[in-house]
Design a protein that fits this description.
By secondary structure, this protein is α+β, with helices and mostly antiparallel strands. The chain contains 19 helices and 20 strands. The longest helix is centred in the first third of the chain and has 27 residues.
């Protein structure tokens, strides 16, 4: 079957992969470590080592005991607390994002970032002077022509694929109307931008990175892995075959890769493809690189008799498989990747905390671990989902009392998750020979997130204990109703289904109405009669204001309950919590099964009825609900 042509619509993608990220975080804190063999430990395993350590025998996934034997003077630092790595990753992401036009910057894990620099490259290609390419200037800012860097546009910066003789580009190029030459010019200019960003990253932040430059996420990521560490690779055109029987640079580049190295083809899919090509089940049962006898290249799969989307559907399809998986994988094998670099988000789509265990088989141990995970989750939420905003109080002070502008800081939620999820991975039972089969299957349970988790005035430890007591233990017992006999390898606690708070950012779902009322009050104060006694809307809780001025239908009530708010006092917190509980209980009684207490009884939780509104309310929520009714209109 003829290969589909790689997508080439002029996009230019740069892929950053920070070198030895975990070790680099420690080295950035203490530069002396750069000259020492350094290993980062999680559990009893080396998760990464710096280059000096690798040179002296340290390697990823090595037992700590073995690492000490191989390199007795190795510096081993504990890396189980991911806070510093997460903070460093976030700072580096923001740093790179500050250079890119259009916010097309996507973070993948802690140590990878995709940059869509198409707009920047097109702008600078248009400004090239074909008569003086050696003295070109890259403009980093359209409005300020002094911001940028000088470069030589007669040659690529850094290595290329295919490599050129003596390490030099195949030929000096000039802008041309030919599509292949036009792409070549864009890639050349992008290679200099990639080098500049790498240089800035090292000089200003102390981190090095391996970089790939191409026209898609797939190709740029693979290109970046050619020359490691602290280097870059540009995949040269032609990206399509010129004549029948010829192979493009993309095809030759991909063909040499093991099938499991192709982004988008995970371990399970790779194992199925290996089994089909080899005619037997592969020996390797882990996520690590295939054993020599199991290695299957992209070329072997692509040229296998009858290979194409229909056969791939047959090999990879089945219950739970994505739709059109054959077409997608066939495209990946031929270098086709249409996925866009996601626009930068102010907040993550989910927050997930997990840990793995050698043996976890008692309810007390599970409870203890859940408290630890819940605490880490809440800290992450406060770090990633809140911001400190300064409000100018000048306009809120009467003119005759106004002396100078003052600022007041308060914490606001940028987004609020709606769903709490608990996942576990049970350890497979032992085989007759004592070995255990590898399993990556998880089982999960989801529930509405309890409102108290957003109380910024409460301590993290107190909230973690409360979250475990009211939600997580109940969810765990529904996943594992047996009181004993299970053994867990992994626990994961996550919050998902994010809803961004209203604000003035362009990604926000709307304007901050409370802030709008405050601004309106400030503007109209000087025009109001002194006899006016009714408080302005901004002096009231917004939900309270809304409920006293218009009836709430079932739909509008539910939407209002799901709208994130910034609670400024315990009374407002309980008021909104009571409102939310009332409205959700009227819509779906089953929702409370997920957030029952941890006693494990099967008694009906919705046994109390509110005497004022007639709604069925859980026992633990009745006090808050009654307080909601007592708040004056």
């Amino acid at each position: 079957m003829a290969a589909p042509p790689p997508r080439n619509d002029g996009r230019i993608i740069i892929h950053f992969d920070y070198d030895c990220f975990y070790a680099s975080v420690f080295e950035a804190e203490n530069p002396v470590l750069k000259s020492l063999p350094l290993a980062v430990q999680q559990k009893q395993i080396v998760v990464t080592a710096n280059y000096e350590g690798r040179r002296r025998g340290l390697r990823k996934l090595q037992l700590i005991s073995e690492a000490k034997k191989v390199c007795p003077d190795a510096v081993i630092l504990l890396g189980e607390d991911l806070t510093k790595f997460r903070d460093a990753s976030k700072a580096l992401y923001s740093f790179l994002k500050s250079f890119v036009w259009g916010d097309r910057v996507e973070k993948l894990g802690f140590d990878e970032v995709y940059l869509d620099v198409t707009e920047m490259i097109e702008y600078n290609v248009e400004l090239l002077n074909s008569h003086n390419l050696a003295n070109s200037f890259f403009y980093l800012n359209k409005l300020d022509p002094t911001i940028g860097f000088a470069y030589d546009a007669t040659t690529f910066c850094g290595p290329t694929y295919p490599p050129s003789p003596d390490g030099q580009p195949e030929a000096t190029i000039t802008p041309s109307s030919s599509s292949s030459d036009a792409l070549r010019v864009r890639l050349l200019v992008a290679s200099h931008l990639a080098h500049y960003l790498r240089d800035q990253l090292e000089q200003q932040k102390g981190y090095t990175a391996t970089v790939g430059v191409s026209t898609s996420k797939l190709l740029s990521k693979l290109a970046g892995s050619v020359h490691k560490p602290n280097n870059q690779t540009t995949l040269l055109p032609p990206y399509t075959a010129g004549q029948p029987g010829e192979e493009s640079n993309v095809t030759r580049f991909l063909d040499a890769h093991d099938i499991g190295k192709v982004p988008g083809i995970g371990f399970k899919l790779a194992q199925k493809l290996r089994a089909h090509v080899l005619g037997r089940e592969p020996n390797s049962e882990t996520y690590h690189a295939a054993t020599p006898g199991d290695k299957v290249t992209v070329r072997q799969v692509r040229l296998f008799p009858g290979m194409g989307p229909p056969l791939l559907d047959k090999i990879l399809g089945g219950p739970g498989s994505p739709r059109d998986i054959g077409v997608k994988v066939w495209g990946l094998l031929n270098g086709v990747d249409s996925s866009e670099v996601s626009q930068a988000r102010a907040t993550p789509t989910q927050i997930s905390i997990e840990d793995s265990y050698g043996r976890l088989d008692s309810i007390d141990a599970v409870r203890k671990e859940l408290v630890t995970l819940a605490g880490s989750l809440i800290r992450r939420m406060r770090t990633d989902l809140t911001e400190e905003e300064e409000e100018d109080t000048k306009d809120s002070i009467p003119a005759d009392e106004r002396k100078e502008s003052r600022s007041v800081s308060r914490i606001r939620w940028l987004a609020r998750p709606r769903t709490l999820r608990l996942s576990t991975r049970p350890r497979p039972p032992a085989n007759p020979d004592g070995s255990r089969s590898h399993s990556s299957n998880r089982i999960s349970r989801s529930a509405p997130i309890p409102p108290f988790i957003f109380n910024l005035g409460d301590s993290v430890d107190a909230l973690a204990e409360r979250l475990v007591q009211h939600s997580l233990m109940s969810m765990f017992r529904k996943l594992h109703p047996e009181k004993s006999g299970w053994n867990l390898r992994l626990l994961n606690v996550a919050v998902t289904n994010m809803v961004e708070s209203a604000g003035e950012q362009k990604q926000s779902s709307g304007r901050d109405i409370e802030k709008m009322f405050r601004k309106q009050e400030a503007v109209l104060r000087d025009w109001k009669s002194s006899s006016e006694s009714e408080p302005a809307p901004s002096q009231l809780d917004f939900h309270h204001y809304q409920s006293s001025h218009e009836p709430r239908s079932g739909l509008s009530s539910k939407l209002a309950a799901q709208t994130p708010l910034s609670y400024e006092s315990p009374a407002e917190d309980y008021q909104t919590a009571g409102s939310t509980l009332c409205e959700l209980a009227q819509d779906d009684d089953d929702v409370w099964e997920e957030i029952s207490d941890d006693a494990g009884e099967e008694e009906a939780i919705l046994s109390d009825t509110c005497k004022l509104c007639g709604a069925s309310i859980p026992h633990f929520a009745m006090e808050a609900h009654e307080l909601y009714h007592r708040v004056p209109d």
